[in-house]
Amino acid sequence: MTISLTAPRKVRRLQWLSLPLAIGAVIVIFWLLATFAAPWLTVYDPLEMVGRRLQAPSWDHWLGTDALGRDVFSRTLHGARHSLPIAVGVVAVAVAIGASLGAVSGFFGGFVGAAIMRLVDVTLSFPPMLLAMAVAASLGPGLGNAAIAMVIVWWPVYARLMRAQVLEVREREHVEAAVASGAGRVRVLTKHILPLCWTPTLIAATMDLGQVILLAASLSFIGLGATPPTPEWGSMISDGASQFYSWWVALGPGLAILTIVLGFNFIGDGLHDYFDPRSK
Amino acid sequence: MTRYILRRLFAMPFLVLGIVTLAFLLTSVTKGDPLTAIVSDRQMNNPEVVAAAKARWGLDRSLPERYVIYVGNLLQGDMGTSFITRRPVAQDVLYRLPATMELVMAAMIVGSVMGISLGVLAAAFHNTVIDHAARVFALFGSSIPVFWLGLALLYVFSVQWGILPGPGRVDPRAALPPAVTGFITIDSLIAGNIPLLLDALRHLILPAFVLGWAVAGTISRLVRANMLEVLGREFILTARAKGAGEFRVIVRHALRNTMVPTLTVIGYSFAYLLTGAVLTETIFSWPGMGSYAVEAARGLDFPAIIGVTIVGGVVFLITNLMTDVAYVIANPRVRLG
Amino acid sequence: MSGGETPLFEVRDLRVAFGRHGQFHEAVRGISLTVRHGEVLGIVGESGSGKSVAMLAALGLQPEGARVTGSVRFKGQELVGMSRRGLRKLRGSRVAMIFQDPLSSLNPVMTVGAQVAEAVLLHNSGISSRAAMKRAVELLELVAIPQPDRRVNQYPHEFSGGMRQRVMIAMAVANDPDLLIADEPTTALDVTVQAQIMQVLADLQHRLNLGLVLITHDLGVLAGQADRVAVVYAGQVVEQGPVDTLFAAPGHPYTRGLIASIPNMEVEKERLFSIDGTPPPLGRLPAGCPFNPRCTQTRDICRSVVPPVRGAADHTAACHFAFGISANTDNAA
Asked: Is residue B105 part of a domain?
């Protein structure tokens, strides 16, 4: 008799690793496509009045029209052209600043290192949204200022991550060997330590892409990010809130944010499982 | 252990000072004249107001001097006057804080229950459909924009189906109970006003759910990981060898051993809740600190913006400290280490 | 085997395989043994020999994804294939098991009393929790834990290693089982404490007329304790017999090696003897006899033909040259 007497009865074992990663990748690729090819994928100009105001979804306008008669579907797809590049930009700059400062702090230590960490601690003491709002309000409206605000909010996360990694790798033997063979400190840092420190930062950055998109949309929703008539998803949802009974106005941008953030989250989760087999 | 607590308490004032300094720098960033951060556009033409502001905040002085005056004023509880409400910001914030706290706590409860249940389910049915479904549900929570979800749920449940009330803390016609804690739920309970308590609870359902789902994802991921680790340990085998059923093994043996890290992650999710509260309050017309911040941001009401940011930072700092201390206390290994 | 009485515990050709996606490797490759009522059976083998996995699988406690085949009869009842509920009813009441490391085998956040009482509560549905706790105190006293009424409310980390293992034993005998399986009960303990624990087990075994299965990697531990011994290597029983004859006239070279490795305080020796080499990894067994790479008396036939089980009724060994008998040449390829 061949009977399995395991504790919980299992339905088919699914490979969690590949499925969400695949779905996430598909979603992200779709939106990347939208970012680059939106003008060719849509029929209507996102900024022009192309139909009657507040029309429900129809064959002409797949997601209906908004209060100014603009096609919601076009605006949704074009929104990617604002959200994605901003998100990538913000994360890239935040990683650049944060990782550098974190590496410096972890490797050189001393007064500068401690000062950097104090700055990190203070910045991380704020609820991110509030700080972003305060900075964006001080700088003035506009997506660019919102981006600066987000970079300010985000860089400490990577500083901490990088510092922790550097501190750990610093103690490893091949580093001692490099120092003993006379390598200069900067060389030791860049050639021997940093190459081993990228993984956690990379995973975090990927997962953060989604969170940055959310934050940008949130800021625009409040009115601190994109200015009209820019088809940014957050401000589109804000329009949708004013047109509460025309439910389709907010549907497109909402689904857009949901899917793209979900896509990044799937990828991040898959990466996380890949690097940490314990949670499989 | 006491040393750790003392060290953290000692560091607190410095962190608060750091928060205040950062906030001060923000006020100096507004283009050109620092006066624009203190006096609203409308009052600019009023020489009395301008003079009073200059005197109180030392606007003619150099940056360091202005900083010292700023901190001094803060210590006296003076955060400036709101452009919009014309009241002292400190007063505004204090008045609106309880509403936010009530919402955030309700959301924390909802989020924790959801997160823990999902995490336990995912771990108990490791690598099955249930595990995957639970993980996807949790991920959804972290992906849906809170403001959009709130709108959608309001539309469906309140407008279309009418089974849940609309925005606001209570029915607009209802009389509020005497304010003891500022929490309408608790105050109405104290006053013995049960219908009002029920009304307040029904108004809490949607916003708490929306906010709670957002943190349930993080909580469930951690609970799942912890549970899987604990379920691999020897004493689980002992329990099974004793003849304990799966439910008992999971709840009485495994779950108990994951409580400490779970509580910590719940404590840390507070930050995310505060962040999400800003948007949730706006959608649900919840008169809390979050919607105050949004109104301030929209109206470029700088004293209010800075005031809320400082208060938010301090509250966040305190909750983090409490969570860290609670972790250290609750962890028997550290306690008796 | 003596006829008439049904054996308490009878394992026949038990196989446990691990693997995934169709690729399975057997960790237990056909183990057969018998335990009679009140008898002590010692199972000895190196780490990785499969001795623990076999016993766990026999009780339905094998790890996720393991495939179990064969027959395990407890008092005549077939355990392989039994429903989970049926197995749960037996575990902790009629059959009990204790493990190697008492620190990790006890729940760190539950009091010792609660854990012992749980064993009682699980199998006596009518009993009140107060009565169960009283019984827990009695059980702690049974295993000679001083001040049981006070210690019953303490946590596992407040006990010493030896005390913890006594707690495990108390939990195991809570419902007066017929069979107790002890998986390396003294390995994680200090040498001085080891003897004490073995004494506790011996006492209980006599008093309760327990069938006892003692799993160990140290043959010396079994010398004074076991009635019969089964030697396990690479997932199979390579020799089994009464303890005295096994020690006096071992049939299998591996057993001889194990006996020689026991440090002997009386004879002056220059170095401690140990068997060369390491056990073969799962799934990569040598051809022929699995022990042949490490055997000092290996011949050609050992490298190609799997040895048959040879010997008399109650003392058998799986070796071509068991008991000094020369190999049966018509078994050769």
From this structure: yes
pLDDT at B299: 79
**pTM of the entire structure?**
0.80
A81-90, A93-102, C161-170, C297-306: segment of lowest average pLDDT: C297-306
Position B114 in a domain: yes
Domain that holds residue B270: 89-330
| SS3 label, residue C320 | coil
**d(C-alpha A135, C-alpha A137), whole Å:** 5
Q: What share of chain C is helix, strand, coil (3-state, %, to 5)?
A: 35, 20, 45
Q: How confident is the model at residue B184 (pLDDT cuts 50, 70, 90)?
A: confident
CA A133 to CA A223: how far, in whole Å?
A: 10
Cβ neighbours of A6 in C, within 8 Å = 62-66
Enumerate the β-bridge partners of residue C67. Answer: C17
Cα A61 from Cα B304, distance rounded (Å): 42
Written as six digits, the tokens of A94 are 């935040």
Contact A125 B143 (CB under 8 A): no
A277 touches chain B (CB under 8 A): no
For residue C188, count other CB atoms closer than 10 A to its CB.
18
**A2/C contact by beta carbon, under 8 A:** yes
Q: pLDDT tens for residues B192-213?
A: 888 888 888 888 899 999 999 9
Q: Which residue has the higher pLDDT, B296 or C324?
A: B296
DSSP state of A3: B
pLDDT of residue A1: 32
Q: How far apart (Å, rounded) are the C-alpha atoms in residues A71 and A54?
A: 10
Would the ipTM clear 0.90, i.e. be above it?
no
How confident is the model at residue C98, as a pLDDT?
A: 92
Give the A:B interface size as CB pairs under 8 Å: 173
- What A212-215 contacts at long range (C-beta under 8 Å, 24+ apart), as own/partner pairs, is A212/A86, A212/A87, A212/A90, A212/A91, A212/A150, A212/A154, A213/A83, A213/A84, A213/A87, A213/A257, A213/A260, A213/A261, A213/A264, A214/A257, A214/A261, A214/B145, A215/A128, A215/A129, A215/A132, A215/A150, A215/A153
Residue of A nearest to C65 (CA): A6
Contacts of A1 in chain C (CB under 8 A): 69, 80-81
Q: B275 and A129 in contact by Cβ < 8 A? A: yes
- CA C57 to chain A, closest CA, distance in angstroms equals 8
Across the interface, do B275 and A125 touch by the CB < 8 Å criterion? Answer: no
Task: Copy the structure tokens of residue B81.
Answer: 């006057």
Assess A10–C contact: CB distance below 8 Å, yes or no: yes
List of residues 6+ apart from C78 with CB closer than 8 A = C71, C72
Sorted by sequence, the CB contacts under 8 Å of residue B159 that are 6+ apart come out as A244, A245, B166
Instruction: Using CB atoms, list chains with 3+ pairs below 8 Å to chain B.
Output: A, C
- Closest partner residue to C109 (CB to CB) among B239, B245, B257 is B257
Smallest CA–CA distance, residue B238 to chain C, in Å, is: 6
CB B253 within 8 A of CB B239: yes
Between the CA of residue A140 and those of A135, A161, A241, what are the distances in Å? 9, 31, 23
Q: Can you tell me the distance from the alpha carbon of A142 to that of A232, in angstroms, rounded to the nearest whole number? A: 11
pLDDT band at C249 (very low <50, low <70, confident <90, very high): confident
C-alpha B179: how far from chain center: 21
Report if residue B73 sits inside a domain.
Answer: no
CATH code of B126's domain: 1.10.3720.10
Looking at beta carbons, which residues of chain A come within 8 Å of B26?
A: 134-135, 138
| Residue B284 per-residue DSSP state | T
- Rounded to an integer, what distance in angstroms lies between the CA atom of residue C41 and that of residue C38? 10
Could you tell me which residue, C37 or B275, shows the higher pLDDT? C37
Closest C-alpha among B121, B143, B141, B142 to residue B132 = B121
Count of structural domains, chain B: 1
B226 located within any domain: yes
Among candidates A165, A186, A19, which has minimal Cα distance to A99? A165
